[in-house]
């Protein structure tokens, strides 16, 4: 989103009349190469006696990400209208699996506890499956 100041781009047609090495054409090609969609189609800059232009652009990588754009009056003495952009954002909750943090384990205490057990008495003559 922003003021890109490329008034010669025809965003409805996705073309410019500039030559291949012109910054306007390079910018337009870069947006196409990045698979960006330009959602703003209404002129947002107006000066008396001049042609109105689409200079304030809203790009996304998904057609349905921008729900709608409202063009509101300019703020202060700006010659750019204000854009109110409603985004279609969905938040998905990702449940994090709990995992043990072995770095916090007291391995010395674990060894002491295991050594304190009389394993012959505990396991005795039990079959392997029961042990």
From TrEMBL:
GO terms for molecular function: catalytic activity. GO terms for cellular component: extracellular matrix. Coiled coil: none annotated. Pfam families: Exo_endo_phos_2. It comes from the Eukaryota. This is Endonuclease/exonuclease/phosphatase domain-containing protein. One of its GO terms (biological process) is larval heart development. Residues 1-82 form the Endonuclease/exonuclease/phosphatase domain. PANTHER family: PERICARDIN, TRANSCRIPTASE, PUTATIVE-RELATED-RELATED. It comes from Elysia crispata.
């Amino acid at each position: 989103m922003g003021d890109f100041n490329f008034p010669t781009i025809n965003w409805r047609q996705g073309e410019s009349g500039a030559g291949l090495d012109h910054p306007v054409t390079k910018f337009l090609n870069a947006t196409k190469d990045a698979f960006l969609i330009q959602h703003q189609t209404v002129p947002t800059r107006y000066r008396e006696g001049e042609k109105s232009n689409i200079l304030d652009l809203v790009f996304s990588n998904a057609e349905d990400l921008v729900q709608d754009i409202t063009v509101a009056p300019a703020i202060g003495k700006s010659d750019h209208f204000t854009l109110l952009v409603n985004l279609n954002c969905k938040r998905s909750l990702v449940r994090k699996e709990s995992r043990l943090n072995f770095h916090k384990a007291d391995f010395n205490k674990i060894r002491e506890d295991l050594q304190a057990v009389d394993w012959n008495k505990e396991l005795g003559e039990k079959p392997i499956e029961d042990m």
